[in-house]
Design a protein that fits this description.
Length: 416
Protein backbone atom coordinates (compact mmCIF):
# COMPACT_ATOMS: atom_id res chain seq x y z
CA UNK A 1 0.00 0.00 0.00
CA UNK A 2 1.38 3.50 -0.79
CA UNK A 3 2.89 5.57 2.03
CA UNK A 4 0.43 8.46 1.71
CA UNK A 5 -2.95 7.05 0.79
CA UNK A 6 -6.04 9.12 1.49
CA UNK A 7 -9.14 7.00 1.23
CA UNK A 8 -12.86 7.48 1.67
CA UNK A 9 -15.89 5.26 1.87
CA UNK A 10 -18.02 7.09 -0.66
CA UNK A 11 -20.80 5.34 -2.58
CA UNK A 12 -20.29 7.38 -5.74
CA UNK A 13 -22.66 5.23 -7.80
CA UNK A 14 -25.54 4.97 -5.29
CA UNK A 15 -28.75 6.74 -6.30
CA UNK A 16 -28.46 9.48 -3.68
CA UNK A 17 -24.97 10.46 -4.87
CA UNK A 18 -25.81 10.12 -8.57
CA UNK A 19 -28.78 12.45 -8.01
CA UNK A 20 -26.53 15.12 -6.49
CA UNK A 21 -22.82 14.28 -6.61
CA UNK A 22 -21.41 17.74 -5.89
CA UNK A 23 -21.03 17.44 -2.11
CA UNK A 24 -19.13 14.17 -2.65
CA UNK A 25 -16.95 15.81 -5.30
CA UNK A 26 -16.18 18.71 -2.93
CA UNK A 27 -15.13 16.21 -0.26
CA UNK A 28 -12.90 14.38 -2.72
CA UNK A 29 -11.24 17.61 -3.91
CA UNK A 30 -10.60 18.67 -0.32
CA UNK A 31 -9.17 15.27 0.67
CA UNK A 32 -6.43 14.86 -1.92
CA UNK A 33 -5.26 14.79 -5.53
CA UNK A 34 -6.09 11.06 -5.61
CA UNK A 35 -8.42 9.46 -3.08
CA UNK A 36 -8.87 5.71 -2.77
CA UNK A 37 -12.55 4.80 -3.09
CA UNK A 38 -12.84 1.73 -0.93
CA UNK A 39 -16.12 0.49 -2.48
CA UNK A 40 -14.78 0.37 -6.01
CA UNK A 41 -11.04 -0.19 -5.57
CA UNK A 42 -10.07 2.85 -7.69
CA UNK A 43 -8.43 6.21 -7.10
CA UNK A 44 -10.83 9.10 -7.62
CA UNK A 45 -9.17 12.11 -9.28
CA UNK A 46 -11.38 15.13 -8.83
CA UNK A 47 -9.32 18.31 -9.33
CA UNK A 48 -9.23 20.02 -12.73
CA UNK A 49 -5.41 20.27 -12.98
CA UNK A 50 -4.85 16.60 -12.10
CA UNK A 51 -7.52 15.32 -14.50
CA UNK A 52 -6.07 17.49 -17.30
CA UNK A 53 -2.54 16.22 -16.59
CA UNK A 54 -3.58 12.55 -16.61
CA UNK A 55 -5.49 12.94 -19.88
CA UNK A 56 -2.29 14.18 -21.49
CA UNK A 57 -0.21 11.27 -20.15
CA UNK A 58 -1.62 8.24 -21.98
CA UNK A 59 1.67 6.31 -21.72
CA UNK A 60 1.32 6.17 -17.94
CA UNK A 61 -2.48 6.32 -17.69
CA UNK A 62 -3.78 3.92 -20.32
CA UNK A 63 -7.34 3.55 -21.58
CA UNK A 64 -6.85 -0.12 -22.45
CA UNK A 65 -8.13 -2.22 -19.57
CA UNK A 66 -8.95 0.87 -17.54
CA UNK A 67 -11.73 2.90 -19.15
CA UNK A 68 -14.58 1.10 -17.31
CA UNK A 69 -14.91 -0.19 -13.77
CA UNK A 70 -15.42 -3.91 -14.43
CA UNK A 71 -13.16 -6.46 -16.11
CA UNK A 72 -16.12 -7.68 -18.18
CA UNK A 73 -16.67 -4.23 -19.69
CA UNK A 74 -12.97 -3.50 -20.13
CA UNK A 75 -12.13 -6.78 -21.79
CA UNK A 76 -15.20 -8.30 -23.42
CA UNK A 77 -17.40 -5.30 -24.20
CA UNK A 78 -14.99 -2.44 -24.82
CA UNK A 79 -11.74 -4.28 -25.45
CA UNK A 80 -10.09 -3.12 -28.68
CA UNK A 81 -12.55 -0.26 -29.29
CA UNK A 82 -11.56 3.34 -29.89
CA UNK A 83 -12.41 4.17 -26.25
CA UNK A 84 -10.35 1.35 -24.81
CA UNK A 85 -7.25 1.30 -26.97
CA UNK A 86 -4.01 3.27 -26.92
CA UNK A 87 -1.09 4.16 -29.16
CA UNK A 88 -1.00 2.95 -32.76
CA UNK A 89 -4.24 0.94 -32.59
CA UNK A 90 -6.13 3.89 -31.15
CA UNK A 91 -4.71 6.27 -33.78
CA UNK A 92 -5.70 3.85 -36.56
CA UNK A 93 -9.30 3.59 -35.36
CA UNK A 94 -9.58 7.29 -34.67
CA UNK A 95 -8.36 8.15 -38.17
CA UNK A 96 -11.25 6.36 -39.91
CA UNK A 97 -13.82 9.09 -39.25
CA UNK A 98 -11.51 12.02 -38.57
CA UNK A 99 -12.26 13.70 -41.91
CA UNK A 100 -16.04 13.32 -41.45
CA UNK A 101 -15.88 15.04 -38.05
CA UNK A 102 -13.29 17.74 -38.73
CA UNK A 103 -14.28 21.42 -38.57
CA UNK A 104 -14.10 21.60 -42.38
CA UNK A 105 -16.73 18.86 -42.68
CA UNK A 106 -18.92 20.80 -40.27
CA UNK A 107 -18.85 23.76 -42.65
CA UNK A 108 -20.37 21.58 -45.36
CA UNK A 109 -22.91 20.21 -42.93
CA UNK A 110 -23.86 23.52 -41.36
CA UNK A 111 -26.69 24.49 -43.73
CA UNK A 112 -28.46 21.17 -43.16
CA UNK A 113 -28.05 21.30 -39.39
CA UNK A 114 -29.21 24.91 -39.20
CA UNK A 115 -32.28 24.15 -41.35
CA UNK A 116 -33.11 21.12 -39.19
CA UNK A 117 -32.77 23.20 -36.01
CA UNK A 118 -35.01 25.94 -37.38
CA UNK A 119 -37.70 23.46 -38.44
CA UNK A 120 -37.65 21.59 -35.15
CA UNK A 121 -37.66 24.73 -33.02
CA UNK A 122 -40.59 26.14 -35.03
CA UNK A 123 -42.56 22.91 -34.51
CA UNK A 124 -41.70 22.36 -30.86
CA UNK A 125 -42.26 25.95 -29.70
CA UNK A 126 -45.46 26.55 -31.67
CA UNK A 127 -47.77 25.77 -28.75
CA UNK A 128 -45.83 27.99 -26.33
CA UNK A 129 -44.51 25.04 -24.35
CA UNK A 130 -41.97 22.34 -25.19
CA UNK A 131 -39.80 19.66 -23.63
CA UNK A 132 -36.14 20.65 -23.98
CA UNK A 133 -35.07 16.99 -23.81
CA UNK A 134 -37.51 15.89 -26.54
CA UNK A 135 -36.36 18.73 -28.80
CA UNK A 136 -32.67 17.93 -28.21
CA UNK A 137 -33.27 14.21 -28.71
CA UNK A 138 -35.10 14.79 -31.99
CA UNK A 139 -32.32 17.02 -33.28
CA UNK A 140 -29.48 14.72 -32.26
CA UNK A 141 -31.10 11.43 -33.32
CA UNK A 142 -32.02 12.75 -36.77
CA UNK A 143 -28.50 14.08 -37.24
CA UNK A 144 -26.63 11.00 -36.03
CA UNK A 145 -28.86 8.51 -37.86
CA UNK A 146 -28.48 10.42 -41.10
CA UNK A 147 -24.71 10.80 -40.74
CA UNK A 148 -24.16 7.19 -39.72
CA UNK A 149 -26.30 6.07 -42.65
CA UNK A 150 -29.30 4.46 -40.93
CA UNK A 151 -32.19 6.92 -41.23
CA UNK A 152 -34.77 4.10 -40.87
CA UNK A 153 -33.38 2.61 -37.65
CA UNK A 154 -35.51 2.08 -34.55
CA UNK A 155 -34.69 5.17 -32.52
CA UNK A 156 -36.00 3.77 -29.22
CA UNK A 157 -33.54 0.87 -29.44
CA UNK A 158 -30.77 3.31 -30.29
CA UNK A 159 -31.65 5.68 -27.47
CA UNK A 160 -31.99 3.03 -24.78
CA UNK A 161 -28.89 1.23 -26.06
CA UNK A 162 -26.76 4.36 -26.16
CA UNK A 163 -27.66 5.31 -22.57
CA UNK A 164 -27.18 1.69 -21.45
CA UNK A 165 -23.68 1.68 -22.94
CA UNK A 166 -22.72 4.34 -20.41
CA UNK A 167 -24.24 2.40 -17.49
CA UNK A 168 -21.99 -0.48 -18.54
CA UNK A 169 -18.87 1.65 -17.93
CA UNK A 170 -19.81 1.78 -14.24
CA UNK A 171 -19.53 -0.71 -11.35
CA UNK A 172 -21.42 -4.01 -11.28
CA UNK A 173 -24.62 -2.66 -9.70
CA UNK A 174 -28.31 -3.10 -10.61
CA UNK A 175 -28.09 -0.35 -13.18
CA UNK A 176 -25.16 -2.12 -14.87
CA UNK A 177 -26.96 -5.49 -14.88
CA UNK A 178 -30.10 -4.00 -16.42
CA UNK A 179 -28.04 -2.17 -19.04
CA UNK A 180 -26.09 -5.15 -20.39
CA UNK A 181 -28.94 -6.57 -22.57
CA UNK A 182 -30.01 -3.11 -23.78
CA UNK A 183 -26.48 -2.25 -24.89
CA UNK A 184 -26.30 -5.60 -26.73
CA UNK A 185 -29.60 -4.90 -28.49
CA UNK A 186 -28.19 -1.68 -29.89
CA UNK A 187 -25.17 -3.51 -31.25
CA UNK A 188 -27.49 -6.15 -32.81
CA UNK A 189 -29.52 -3.37 -34.43
CA UNK A 190 -26.36 -1.87 -35.89
CA UNK A 191 -25.35 -5.29 -37.22
CA UNK A 192 -28.77 -5.56 -38.94
CA UNK A 193 -28.98 -2.05 -40.33
CA UNK A 194 -25.40 -1.27 -41.16
CA UNK A 195 -24.61 -3.78 -43.87
CA UNK A 196 -22.73 -3.09 -47.07
CA UNK A 197 -26.02 -3.42 -49.02
CA UNK A 198 -27.88 -0.90 -46.86
CA UNK A 199 -25.29 1.76 -46.31
CA UNK A 200 -24.68 4.65 -48.69
CA UNK A 201 -21.26 6.05 -49.44
CA UNK A 202 -20.69 9.49 -47.96
CA UNK A 203 -22.01 8.27 -44.59
CA UNK A 204 -19.93 7.43 -41.52
CA UNK A 205 -20.62 3.73 -42.03
CA UNK A 206 -19.70 4.04 -45.71
CA UNK A 207 -16.34 5.46 -44.63
CA UNK A 208 -15.87 2.63 -42.11
CA UNK A 209 -16.45 -0.02 -44.81
CA UNK A 210 -14.07 1.84 -47.14
CA UNK A 211 -11.41 1.69 -44.41
CA UNK A 212 -11.99 -2.08 -44.13
CA UNK A 213 -11.73 -2.51 -47.90
CA UNK A 214 -8.53 -0.46 -47.97
CA UNK A 215 -7.02 -2.73 -45.30
CA UNK A 216 -6.77 0.08 -42.73
CA UNK A 217 -8.89 -1.75 -40.16
CA UNK A 218 -10.21 -5.28 -39.79
CA UNK A 219 -13.78 -6.28 -40.75
CA UNK A 220 -14.31 -7.18 -37.07
CA UNK A 221 -13.60 -3.57 -36.09
CA UNK A 222 -16.37 -2.11 -38.27
CA UNK A 223 -19.51 -2.48 -36.13
CA UNK A 224 -17.73 -1.81 -32.81
CA UNK A 225 -16.48 1.44 -34.33
CA UNK A 226 -19.97 2.39 -35.52
CA UNK A 227 -21.34 1.46 -32.13
CA UNK A 228 -18.79 3.60 -30.25
CA UNK A 229 -19.51 6.66 -32.40
CA UNK A 230 -23.29 6.17 -32.21
CA UNK A 231 -23.36 5.69 -28.43
CA UNK A 232 -20.92 8.54 -27.86
CA UNK A 233 -22.77 10.98 -30.09
CA UNK A 234 -26.34 10.69 -28.81
CA UNK A 235 -26.96 11.06 -25.06
CA UNK A 236 -23.96 13.27 -24.47
CA UNK A 237 -25.25 15.95 -26.81
CA UNK A 238 -28.91 15.49 -25.86
CA UNK A 239 -28.17 15.89 -22.15
CA UNK A 240 -25.73 18.78 -22.63
CA UNK A 241 -28.05 20.71 -24.92
CA UNK A 242 -31.18 20.17 -22.82
CA UNK A 243 -29.28 21.21 -19.70
CA UNK A 244 -28.10 24.35 -21.48
CA UNK A 245 -31.69 25.31 -22.37
CA UNK A 246 -32.72 24.71 -18.73
CA UNK A 247 -29.85 26.93 -17.50
CA UNK A 248 -30.88 29.71 -19.86
CA UNK A 249 -34.48 29.42 -18.64
CA UNK A 250 -33.19 29.71 -15.07
CA UNK A 251 -31.08 32.78 -15.94
CA UNK A 252 -33.29 35.21 -17.86
CA UNK A 253 -30.72 38.00 -18.09
CA UNK A 254 -28.28 35.65 -19.73
CA UNK A 255 -30.98 34.50 -22.13
CA UNK A 256 -31.54 38.16 -23.10
CA UNK A 257 -27.79 38.64 -23.58
CA UNK A 258 -27.72 35.59 -25.84
CA UNK A 259 -30.78 36.76 -27.79
CA UNK A 260 -29.13 40.11 -28.38
CA UNK A 261 -26.03 38.51 -29.90
CA UNK A 262 -26.62 34.79 -30.54
CA UNK A 263 -23.63 34.46 -32.85
CA UNK A 264 -21.35 35.48 -30.00
CA UNK A 265 -23.01 33.81 -27.00
CA UNK A 266 -24.46 30.50 -28.21
CA UNK A 267 -21.22 28.50 -28.02
CA UNK A 268 -20.14 29.98 -24.63
CA UNK A 269 -23.64 29.25 -23.27
CA UNK A 270 -23.25 25.60 -24.31
CA UNK A 271 -19.70 25.25 -22.97
CA UNK A 272 -20.74 26.80 -19.66
CA UNK A 273 -23.51 24.21 -19.29
CA UNK A 274 -21.03 21.42 -20.05
CA UNK A 275 -18.54 22.79 -17.52
CA UNK A 276 -21.19 22.97 -14.81
CA UNK A 277 -22.96 19.66 -15.53
CA UNK A 278 -20.65 17.39 -17.54
CA UNK A 279 -22.90 14.94 -19.45
CA UNK A 280 -20.25 12.25 -18.89
CA UNK A 281 -19.26 12.52 -15.23
CA UNK A 282 -16.24 10.23 -15.34
CA UNK A 283 -14.09 7.66 -17.13
CA UNK A 284 -11.20 5.50 -15.98
CA UNK A 285 -7.55 4.91 -16.86
CA UNK A 286 -5.10 2.18 -15.74
CA UNK A 287 -1.51 2.81 -14.65
CA UNK A 288 1.15 1.21 -16.82
CA UNK A 289 3.91 2.11 -14.33
CA UNK A 290 4.17 3.47 -10.77
CA UNK A 291 3.79 7.22 -10.42
CA UNK A 292 2.95 9.97 -7.94
CA UNK A 293 0.03 12.35 -8.11
CA UNK A 294 0.00 15.32 -5.73
CA UNK A 295 2.08 13.39 -3.20
CA UNK A 296 -0.01 10.22 -3.48
CA UNK A 297 1.84 7.11 -4.66
CA UNK A 298 -0.02 5.13 -7.31
CA UNK A 299 1.10 1.61 -8.22
CA UNK A 300 1.35 -0.02 -11.64
CA UNK A 301 -1.92 -1.79 -12.55
CA UNK A 302 -4.09 0.40 -10.33
CA UNK A 303 -7.00 2.33 -11.78
CA UNK A 304 -7.87 6.04 -11.56
CA UNK A 305 -11.40 7.38 -12.04
CA UNK A 306 -11.30 10.80 -13.70
CA UNK A 307 -14.18 12.95 -12.50
CA UNK A 308 -14.89 15.39 -15.33
CA UNK A 309 -18.04 16.46 -13.46
CA UNK A 310 -15.95 17.49 -10.46
CA UNK A 311 -13.22 19.20 -12.50
CA UNK A 312 -15.84 21.62 -13.84
CA UNK A 313 -16.71 22.66 -10.28
CA UNK A 314 -13.14 22.99 -9.00
CA UNK A 315 -12.74 26.46 -7.48
CA UNK A 316 -8.94 26.21 -7.90
CA UNK A 317 -9.57 26.46 -11.64
CA UNK A 318 -12.91 28.30 -11.88
CA UNK A 319 -12.85 30.59 -8.83
CA UNK A 320 -15.32 31.14 -6.01
CA UNK A 321 -18.31 31.16 -8.35
CA UNK A 322 -17.46 27.73 -9.83
CA UNK A 323 -21.00 26.54 -9.02
CA UNK A 324 -22.63 29.44 -10.89
CA UNK A 325 -23.81 29.39 -14.51
CA UNK A 326 -22.24 32.38 -16.27
CA UNK A 327 -22.00 32.43 -20.06
CA UNK A 328 -19.50 35.30 -19.84
CA UNK A 329 -17.00 33.29 -17.80
CA UNK A 330 -13.61 33.75 -19.52
CA UNK A 331 -12.34 30.71 -21.40
CA UNK A 332 -15.16 28.46 -20.27
CA UNK A 333 -14.43 26.20 -23.25
CA UNK A 334 -11.36 25.10 -21.28
CA UNK A 335 -13.55 22.63 -19.34
CA UNK A 336 -12.85 18.88 -19.37
CA UNK A 337 -16.37 17.70 -20.20
CA UNK A 338 -15.01 16.64 -23.61
CA UNK A 339 -12.03 14.88 -22.02
CA UNK A 340 -8.59 15.79 -23.40
CA UNK A 341 -5.34 14.43 -24.84
CA UNK A 342 -5.48 11.71 -27.52
CA UNK A 343 -8.97 10.60 -26.43
CA UNK A 344 -10.41 14.12 -26.61
CA UNK A 345 -14.00 13.77 -27.78
CA UNK A 346 -14.06 13.12 -31.52
CA UNK A 347 -17.39 14.91 -31.89
CA UNK A 348 -16.71 18.35 -30.37
CA UNK A 349 -17.35 20.30 -33.63
CA UNK A 350 -20.55 18.32 -34.29
CA UNK A 351 -21.88 18.76 -30.76
CA UNK A 352 -21.16 22.49 -30.80
CA UNK A 353 -22.68 22.93 -34.26
CA UNK A 354 -25.92 21.26 -33.20
CA UNK A 355 -26.13 23.19 -29.93
CA UNK A 356 -25.35 26.54 -31.55
CA UNK A 357 -27.97 25.93 -34.24
CA UNK A 358 -30.72 25.07 -31.74
CA UNK A 359 -29.86 28.01 -29.46
CA UNK A 360 -29.83 30.46 -32.35
CA UNK A 361 -33.15 29.14 -33.64
CA UNK A 362 -34.66 29.49 -30.16
CA UNK A 363 -33.21 32.99 -29.85
CA UNK A 364 -34.85 34.00 -33.12
CA UNK A 365 -38.29 32.89 -31.94
CA UNK A 366 -38.54 33.05 -28.16
CA UNK A 367 -38.35 36.29 -26.23
CA UNK A 368 -38.58 34.49 -22.89
CA UNK A 369 -37.88 30.98 -21.67
CA UNK A 370 -39.34 29.91 -18.33
CA UNK A 371 -39.15 26.57 -16.54
CA UNK A 372 -42.60 24.98 -16.50
CA UNK A 373 -42.08 22.78 -13.43
CA UNK A 374 -38.86 21.20 -12.16
CA UNK A 375 -36.99 19.16 -14.80
CA UNK A 376 -36.91 15.40 -14.18
CA UNK A 377 -33.46 13.96 -13.63
CA UNK A 378 -32.36 10.68 -15.25
CA UNK A 379 -29.85 8.54 -13.35
CA UNK A 380 -27.04 6.64 -15.04
CA UNK A 381 -23.69 5.31 -13.80
CA UNK A 382 -21.85 7.83 -15.98
CA UNK A 383 -24.30 10.26 -17.57
CA UNK A 384 -25.84 13.31 -15.93
CA UNK A 385 -28.85 15.22 -17.17
CA UNK A 386 -32.60 15.29 -17.51
CA UNK A 387 -35.16 12.93 -19.03
CA UNK A 388 -37.73 15.70 -19.27
CA UNK A 389 -37.57 19.50 -18.94
CA UNK A 390 -40.73 21.47 -19.70
CA UNK A 391 -40.10 25.02 -20.90
CA UNK A 392 -42.72 27.71 -21.45
CA UNK A 393 -41.87 30.29 -24.09
CA UNK A 394 -43.10 33.71 -25.16
CA UNK A 395 -43.07 33.78 -28.91
CA UNK A 396 -42.43 36.98 -30.73
CA UNK A 397 -41.19 36.43 -34.24
CA UNK A 398 -41.49 40.13 -35.08
CA UNK A 399 -39.44 41.52 -32.19
CA UNK A 400 -37.08 38.56 -32.40
CA UNK A 401 -35.83 39.84 -35.73
CA UNK A 402 -32.49 41.64 -35.75
CA UNK A 403 -32.25 45.00 -34.04
CA UNK A 404 -34.52 44.35 -31.08
CA UNK A 405 -34.12 46.56 -28.07
CA UNK A 406 -32.88 44.39 -25.23
CA UNK A 407 -30.77 45.08 -22.14
CA UNK A 408 -27.08 45.44 -22.96
CA UNK A 409 -24.95 42.34 -22.49
CA UNK A 410 -22.21 43.31 -20.05
CA UNK A 411 -18.80 41.84 -20.83
CA UNK A 412 -18.18 41.48 -17.05
CA UNK A 413 -20.35 41.57 -13.99
CA UNK A 414 -22.96 39.55 -12.21
CA UNK A 415 -24.82 36.89 -14.14
CA UNK A 416 -28.28 35.69 -13.37
C1 LIG B 1 -21.89 17.44 -25.52
C2 LIG B 1 -21.59 16.39 -26.22
C3 LIG B 1 -20.46 15.45 -25.92
C4 LIG B 1 -19.77 15.25 -24.75
C5 LIG B 1 -19.96 15.94 -23.42
C6 LIG B 1 -18.77 14.23 -25.01
C7 LIG B 1 -17.85 13.77 -24.07
C8 LIG B 1 -16.80 12.95 -24.37
C9 LIG B 1 -15.74 12.61 -23.46
C10 LIG B 1 -15.61 13.08 -22.03
C11 LIG B 1 -14.88 11.78 -24.11
C12 LIG B 1 -13.55 11.29 -23.60
C13 LIG B 1 -13.42 9.85 -23.34
C14 LIG B 1 -12.18 9.52 -22.54
O1 LIG B 1 -11.76 10.30 -21.69
O2 LIG B 1 -11.64 8.46 -22.75
C15 LIG B 1 -15.43 11.57 -25.43
C16 LIG B 1 -14.89 10.75 -26.39
C17 LIG B 1 -15.48 10.48 -27.59
N1 LIG B 1 -16.56 11.12 -28.15
FE1 LIG B 1 -17.67 12.54 -27.27
N2 LIG B 1 -18.90 13.81 -26.30
C18 LIG B 1 -19.91 14.54 -26.89
C19 LIG B 1 -20.35 14.44 -28.20
C20 LIG B 1 -19.86 13.55 -29.13
C21 LIG B 1 -20.33 13.45 -30.48
C22 LIG B 1 -21.40 14.33 -31.14
C23 LIG B 1 -19.64 12.44 -31.06
C24 LIG B 1 -19.82 12.00 -32.48
C25 LIG B 1 -19.01 11.59 -33.26
C26 LIG B 1 -18.71 11.92 -30.07
C27 LIG B 1 -17.80 10.90 -30.27
C28 LIG B 1 -16.82 10.55 -29.36
C29 LIG B 1 -15.88 9.48 -29.59
C30 LIG B 1 -15.81 8.58 -30.81
C31 LIG B 1 -15.04 9.43 -28.47
C32 LIG B 1 -13.87 8.48 -28.23
C33 LIG B 1 -12.63 9.18 -28.62
C34 LIG B 1 -11.39 8.38 -28.32
O3 LIG B 1 -11.38 7.54 -27.44
O4 LIG B 1 -10.40 8.65 -29.03
N3 LIG B 1 -18.88 12.64 -28.91
N4 LIG B 1 -16.59 12.31 -25.57
Amino acid sequence: MPAFAPSLSLPLFDESVLADPYRAYGELRATGAAVRLEEYGVWAVSRHADVAKILKSPDVFASEGGIALTDLANQQILGGTVFASDGARHAKLRKVLSKQLAPRAMKNLADRIVARAEDLVATYTESGRFDAVALSRHMVCDTVMELMGMPGADREVLLSGAAATFDVFGPDNDRYQQALPLASRMVELLHDKLTRENVASGTWMGAIFEAVDAGQIEEADAIPLASAYTAAAIDTTVLGLADCIVQLARHPKQWQALRRDPVRWSAPAFHEALRLEAPIQGFGRRLTEPTTLGGVDLAEGEQVWLLYGSAGRDDRRWGDDANTYDIRRPRNDNHLAFGGGPHLCAGVPLAVLQARSILRALAARCTHLTLDGEPVRVLNNLLRGYSQAAIAVDLSPRTAAAGIDLPQARPQGPAS
